[in-house]
Amino acid sequence: MLIKIRFSMKFPKVIYFLITGAITAALALFVVFYETEIVDDKEIVVPLVKKVVDAKPIEVKPTREETAETIKLEVVRVRPDGSLVIAGKGLPNSKLEIISNSEVIAVTTSDKIGDFVAVPEKQLKGGEYFLSFRQTTKDNVVVIAKKSVAINVTGNQDDIPIVAIVDSQGKLSAKVIQAPGLEKKEGSNKDDKNTNTKVTKEPQIKILAISHDSKVGQLVLSGIAFNGVQVNAGFTGKETSSTKIINGEWTLSIPGKLIAGKQKVFSVLLGKNGKVLREDSIIITGKNIENADGKTLIIVQKGDALWNIAYQRLGLGYRYIDIVKLNKNKIKNPDLIYPKQLFIIPNKIN
Fold it and tell me: Containing H/E element for 253?
């Protein structure tokens, strides 16, 4: 007892407790060694190893967070009225849900390589939105994307909404991808019909659009042509129709009914002597016309962009979102369209 009192007076309490703990640990080690010696006294039979085998490395399975792939957002655009289109790449053959304020606002499915496009049915009203992305694989594994999208819509038709991609884990700063001044101005995208009909020395003809005239039950073709005098068009192997070229443009109805299977529709540009100068063609089916439901089908040309098509055909570049809605099965990424694709065009709004 006297030793304990002198010890505590000579050293601070913290050091006292540390030393006390060390003594306790030493006692514990003594007990362990003592028990070990008792075990060592017993006879231990060690099996004979006949063959030396290299140890295999232990496979450490990654956690769910490590296996979760962040969706690659390639296109996120919002027009002033709140219409939204999102496209990118995620997990293949998975259901993708876009969530805003705990509400699923759009559902789509990615294809076998992960490409997807989503267009919510309802437009975003004026306000701020924070969109997250949830994928469900065919094995019912749920993966939450690491990136989110922040959107500000004023509700004013003259204001371009602000869109930013945000790292939901807070590791990266927000990346603004749409805002006033960043969007392409319509004035720089006025690649109207004059672009396609500019004068060149070589004869040229293109089929730009196809529609179905329900009154006569025939297809109506329209397009451009120059450096020729006449256009003939029709189904391959059938009677053709002829028309004149006016200001580089032409329109005509072709005889014959479209069959259910594939048929080739062609147009040729003739010179003054009746010689064929150029030809253009497109493969079309009865299903194409049925799906169009009376609307016009346009044929994508080399160098086309959805924004330009919407501006030329509908008078407003932002209406490319309406084209995406009508052609979800064909447009995986609004920035990637290809020549000879057939797209349904919505009716023009005056």
Answer: strand 249-254
* CATH number of the domain to which 118 belongs: 2.60.40.10
Region of residue 141 (phi > 0: left; psi between -120 and 50: alpha; otherwise: beta): beta
What's the residue count for the chain?
Answer: 350
List C-alpha distances in Å: 277 to 171, 226, 270: 61, 10, 6
Residue 158: band (very low, low, confident or very high) from pLDDT cuts 50, 70, 90? confident
Query: Any long-range contacts for 248-252 (C-beta under 8 Å, 24+ apart)?
Result: 248/193, 248/197, 248/224, 249/193, 249/197, 249/222, 249/223, 249/224, 249/225, 250/222, 250/223, 250/224, 250/225, 251/220, 251/221, 251/222, 252/220, 252/221
Band of residue 48 on the pLDDT scale cut at 50, 70, 90: low
Helix or strand run (H / E) with residue 117: strand 115-118
178: number of CA atoms within 13 Å, CB side? 23
Q: Which residue has the tokens 């994508």?
A: 300
pLDDT in tens, 16-31: 444 454 445 444 434 4
Find the domain containing 120 and state its range. Answer: 67-183
Query: Minimal CA–CA distance to 206: which of 187, 166, 179, 233?
Result: 233
Q: Report the alpha-carbon distance of residue 52 to residue 47 in Å, rounded.
A: 13
The larger pLDDT score, comparing residue 59 to residue 108, is at: 108
Last residue of a domain, one of 128, 150, 183: 183
CA 192/CA 308 separation, integer angstroms: 8
Query: Which one of 148, 183, 218 terminates a domain?
Result: 183
What is the pTM for the complete model shown?
Answer: 0.59
* Closest C-alpha among 278, 304, 282 to residue 202: 278
